[in-house]
Amino acid sequence: MLIWIYMNERFKKFNHPRTEEIVNSGFEISGPEDTLRNQEMFAEPVLDKIEEITDGVIFEQKNIVLDDIGSYTNSYRVVCRENAPNIIYDIETTEKPVHLKRWLVNDSDTICAINGGFFLLVDEKPETIPVEMSLGTIIRNGILRGVQSHDRPVLWMNEEGYLNVNEINSHGQVNIGNKTHSWTGINSNLIHENEADTYLFSSDCCIVEHDYSEQTGTIRTINREKSITPIHGDKVDLVCKINGDYFIVAEINEGGGTFVIDGDFILQGHKSEFNHVKIGDQVDINYSDLDIKTINNAITIGPSIFDFENEKEHPINNDKSLGEKPPFVEERMARSVIYKTNAGELIFELFDGAPKTELFKGISPKEVYNFLTEENADIEWGYFLDPGQSARLAVRHSDGSVVGYGNQHYIRWPKSSDQPFIWSGEHGRSIPSAVTIKCKST
Predict the structure, then answer these.
(1) Cα separation of 395 and 403, whole Å?
(2) Which H/E stretch holds residue 173?
């Protein structure tokens, strides 16, 4: 109760230009409880709509009823026909998270963007901040900038704009100086099957917890004590950081105990394996399951929709770098997916929802599988992207307007006591990766 009294006092500072947009959008709001406790004002079934936004690219929206009591989600979908002329795809990443619509605003050739992979989401920033906030594999303009410690799918594209997904095991070889080593991600299933020369840790090894906050009720923080490499006298950590277009050994820590985000990734092995290594040595790392040299852009994404045909519990729900609220349990929330049909159509789809509503909470992974496979039995592959309040779709319509869809209830919470709550439904959460559709420049 004290939290809400405090927030109501804080809401006296809620008079902000973006907040006025709520009223301009037709919503009635008088205080933080209206959006943090009750989001029914954002729960409204959409009317069916189909629009060709450019040749061969179709925007569709519709309301989907999920059960007998009337629970529903709103679907926003962009379909690219196989023969769509002058269309290219891209996977875009940035070191600093930005609003999804920004990819369209900054580039007039971009006609659609959907949120990408997971990223390190914390409210209380650690002293050390990773260069890249995206978790897992990151390839940007042909340069590897992030490596995953989990076995996860990687969405990638080559220079010709061919877009595809590979299921990647976190293992491969790494060249340091004049010596080649085998490596395995510390969270890979392969760690139980074979012994590698070195084990890889990256920011997806962080332990993110939800702690009490007097300001907002809860806050996401990194548990630093649990987010370190194992401590052992016979081990050594190579802290690897990006240096231009390749990695180097930036630090050598004997005995382990390195904070996992002190580098872009960390390799831990026996001292005898690394007695030849010097600070400044170049580090060339690759996957056994993916030819990095043929890829222009790539990100790690969520699980396949087919993983939920029969299975309800998924290993990704044990990933503590994603926080204490598992993202793929059988729970309804906003979810975004990307999938391809055997007919060559590539589809971006957002299933919207708001958690503080009775009937408009979103959709579960199993319901996504059921809906997509019943509607289209010809899916070649389909994968989840980052769900919840990160799930967004931005579209440049045929009249030139740019609209952001999903999570219209989103409130940007204050970082300090002198800042206001800000409604940011049209912009949504800032994110560091997106998958985009572009018109080829003439």
Answers:
(1) 5
(2) strand 171-176
- Per-residue tokens: 123: 């409210």
CA–CA gap between residue 230 and residue 219 (Å, rounded): 27
Q: In 43-145, which ranges are continuous DSSP H helix?
A: 100-105
Nearest Cα residue to 404 out of 108, 121, 64, 102: 102
What is the rounded distance in angstroms from the CA atom of residue 15 to the CA atom of residue 310? 48
- For 223-265, the pLDDT digits (tens) are 999 999 999 999 999 999 999 999 999 999 999 999 999 999 9
Kindly provide the b/e burial profile for residues 308-342, where b requires at least 16 CB atoms within 10 angstroms of the residue's own CB.
beeeeebebeebbbbbeeebbeebbbbbbbbbbbe
> Which residue type occupies 42?
F
What are the counts of helices (DSSP H) followed by strands (DSSP E) for the chain? 5, 27
- The one-letter amino acid code at 110 reads T
Q: 422: closest CA among 99, 121, 126, 73?
A: 99
Query: What are the two backbone dihedrals, phi and then psi, of residue 141, each rounded to the nearest 5 degrees?
Result: 55, 45
CB 349 within 8 A of CB 337: yes
Q: Whole-angstrom Cα distance, residue 27 to residue 42?
A: 8
pTM recorded for the entire structure: 0.91
User: What are the pLDDT digits (tens) for 48-107?
Assistant: 999 999 999 999 999 999 999 999 999 999 999 988 888 999 999 999 899 999 999 999
Q: Which residues on adjacent β-strands are paired with residue 239?
A: 251, 266
Contact 266, 202 (CB under 8 A): yes
Residue 28 has pLDDT above 60, yes or no: no
* Residues 203, 242: Cα–Cα separation, whole Å: 14
Strands 57-65 and 49-54, by their bridges, are antiparallel
Show the tokens assigned to 424: 């940011």
Q: 399: alpha, beta or left, given left = phi > 0 and alpha = psi -120 to 50?
A: alpha
Tell me the domain boundaries of the chain. 1-111+312-442, 118-300
Location of structure tokens 């993110």:
208
